Amino acid sequence: MKPAIISFEDFQKVDIRVGKIIEVHDFPKAKNPAYQIKIDFGGLGVKQSSAQITALYTKEQLLNKEVLAVVNFEPKQIANFLSECLILGIQNGKEVVLLRPEQSVSIGTPVR
């Protein structure tokens, strides 16, 4: 499938930031195995997200990890949980591999 072509101005509307995972909990009400995750984005505050990454990551492995997330999507209700941002990852077969900064950077830093 050929990707849709967007303008640079459209891309600039997507706010992708570096955040630090500060809490991870099981999400038993999700349709597919998932975690409920709280992420600190510095000056933007703390946002929560649901992520189907239980196959590759334990809760302990995720704590204090830096991740990339879209922080300006409309919140999405998932079962009894309101997801406020989208953690970015790469679909690798059936699993999702998280996108993370190669080096530590300040939380809240935007992707350019």
Explained architecture:
With 112 residues, the protein is mostly beta strands. It has two helices and nine strands, in the order H-E-E-E-H-E-E-E-E-E-E. The protein has a five-stranded antiparallel sheet with strand order 3-2-1-4-7. A two-stranded antiparallel ribbon has the order 5-6. It starts with 7 loop residues before the first helix and ends in a 14-residue tail after the last strand.
Distance N to C terminus? 26 Å
The stretches of 5 or more residues where confidence is low (pLDDT under 50) are none
Element order: H for helix, E for strand: HEEEHEEEEEE
Number of strands: 9
Strand fraction equals 35-45%
- Structural class computed from helices and strand pairing: mainly beta
* Overall outline: globular
Our count of helices gives 2
* Biggest beta-sheet profile: 5 strands, antiparallel
Instruction: Calculate Rg over CA atoms.
Output: 14 Å
Give the rounded overall mean pLDDT: 95
Q: Give the helix proportion (percent range).
A: under 10%
**Strand line-up in the sheet with most strands:** 3-2-1-4-7
